[in-house]
């Protein structure tokens, strides 16, 4: 007979979320009762029933269980220090949330996260303790989720935490992603690489050209790609890039960086518009003089746009278009460069005048997760 669990908590995530996630990971059905703050007094004396099925997530042996306990106590100290943030957020006390964040959360973060970071740096599994996910990982991950939503750069100083935190969301399997496009790299390649970087599972649907007419009516704007997030559809490749970039941490550390990344994405798209007569001819989908179009359309547009990119990259020591981290705009541009130099267009001289851009493209595509994806992705002509 299966047990029946009922979890009673408030309508926000905070401490209840960790238990919700543990139950979900354990594959246990539970009643997720979310109490409104003003109803709390009426049910305050109710007892929760049943025990949590923690065994699977509480360490492989006594030593690991003790380490998990130690980290959990440490986390509790951290939580107590930043409590005013939650209280202000939920309007239980008055105050300016940004001030509370600056004065309380940031110093507490810089006191406590190095401890978790050290554990992760020393771990070869990507989990805080041992070789498996434990409930201290889910606790930390939910904390990171809350504060990264509030300040996207929250975890930037702690890359050891930021990377496994996204992997955790893969494990918790919270969102079902489906990306629909053709059997081609084209406009879907950047979103695919964002999934590869984040280590997040998705359905990579590739519709053969002859089947497209029956799928076209399902496309939100009549074109591909589109992304489905738990069945909700999002069209337009740049909107998809921005969405996944933000979700996975490749869209800038603040609003200004995000806007600069958008600007590069838009500028690059203007370049594609400038060379649009060449593309279908080079792809063998339209009649035309490929060599003539390359000379008369591609080369002048390239001489207008590429020097801007070269200048930008020479100004940014980090070697990315914006800030000190890879963004979706870097992927978007690097994919185009790779396609022209090595892909079906046979324009291997495309970057002869721009060795810096060739080096940049290779550097981006050598990032281990991208490299791995490129090695295993389906081989397609376009
Ligand atoms: N601006 C759109 C363009 C989408 C687009 O034109 N997609 C082409 C393939 S690259 C397509 O769906 N063609 C089939 C059709 O229009 O029926 C985006 O970036 O998503």
TrEMBL record:
- Catalytically driven reaction(s): RX + glutathione = an S-substituted glutathione + a halide anion + H(+)
User: One Gene Ontology cellular component annotation?
Assistant: cytoplasm
Q: Does the keyword Transferase apply?
A: yes
Which terms does the UniProt entry file under GO BP?
A: glutathione metabolic process
Q: What is its EC number?
A: 2.5.1.18
Q: Check the record and name the InterPro entries matching this protein.
A: Glutathione-S-Trfase_C-like, Glutathione-S-Trfase_C_sf, Glutathione_S-Trfase, Glutathione_S-Trfase_N, GST_C, GST_superfamily, Thioredoxin-like_sf
* Pfam families (UniProt xref): GST_C_3, GST_N
Q: Where is the GST C-terminal domain?
A: 61-192, 254-382
Question: What keyword terms does UniProt attach to this protein?
Answer: Transferase
Q: Name one GO molecular function term.
A: glutathione peroxidase activity
Q: Where is the GST N-terminal domain?
A: 3-87, 175-252
Family per record: Belongs to the GST superfamily. Sigma family.
- Fetch the PANTHER family from UniProt: GLUTATHIONE S-TRANSFERASE (PTHR11571), GST C-TERMINAL DOMAIN-CONTAINING PROTEIN-RELATED (PTHR11571:SF256)
- Please give the name of this protein: glutathione transferase
Source species of the chain: Mesorhabditis belari
């Amino acid at each position: 007979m299966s047990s029946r669990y009922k979890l009673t908590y408030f309508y926000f995530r905070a401490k209840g979320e960790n238990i919700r996630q543990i139950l979900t990971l354990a594959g246990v059905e539970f009643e997720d009762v979310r109490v409104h703050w003003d109803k709390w007094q009426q049910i305050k004396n109710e007892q929760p029933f049943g025990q949590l099925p923690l065994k699977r997530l509480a360490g492989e042996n006594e030593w690991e269980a003790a380490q998990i306990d130690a980290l959990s106590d440490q986390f509790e100290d951290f939580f107590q220090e930043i409590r005013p943030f939650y209280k202000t957020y939920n309007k239980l006390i008055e105050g300016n949330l940004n001030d509370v964040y600056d004065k309380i959360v940031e110093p507490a973060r810089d006191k406590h996260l190095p401890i978790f970071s050290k554990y992760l740096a020393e771990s070869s599994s990507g989990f805080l303790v041992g070789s498996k996910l434990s409930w201290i990982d889910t606790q930390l991950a939910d904390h990171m989720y809350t504060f990264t939503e509030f300040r996207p750069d929250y975890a930037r100083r702690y890359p050891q935490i930021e990377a496994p935190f996204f992997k955790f969301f893969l494990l918790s399997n919270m969102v079902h992603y489906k990306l629909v496009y053709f059997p081609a790299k084209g406009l879907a390649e950047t979103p695919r690489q964002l999934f590869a970087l984040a280590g997040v599972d998705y359905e990579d649907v590739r519709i053969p050209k002859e089947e497209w007419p029956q799928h076209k009516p399902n496309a939100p704007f009549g074109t591909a790609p589109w992304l489905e997030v738990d069945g909700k559809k999002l069209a337009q490749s740049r909107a998809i890039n921005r969405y996944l970039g933000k979700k996975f941490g490749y869209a800038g550390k603040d609003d200004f960086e995000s806007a600069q990344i958008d600007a590069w994405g838009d500028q690059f798209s203007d370049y594609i518009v400038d060379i649009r007569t060449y593309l279908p001819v080079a792809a063998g989908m339209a009649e035309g003089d490929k060599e003539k179009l390359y000379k008369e359309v591609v080369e002048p547009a390239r001489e207008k746009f590429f020097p801007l990119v070269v200048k930008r990259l020479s100004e940014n020591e980090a070697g990315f278009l914006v800030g000190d981290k890879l963004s979706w705009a870097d992927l978007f541009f690097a994919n185009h460069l790779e396609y022209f130099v090595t892909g079906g267009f046979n324009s291997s001289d495309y970057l002869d005048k721009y060795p810096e851009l060739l080096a940049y493209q290779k550097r981006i595509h050598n990032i281990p997760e991208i490299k791995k994806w490129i090695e295993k992705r389906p081989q397609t002509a376009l």
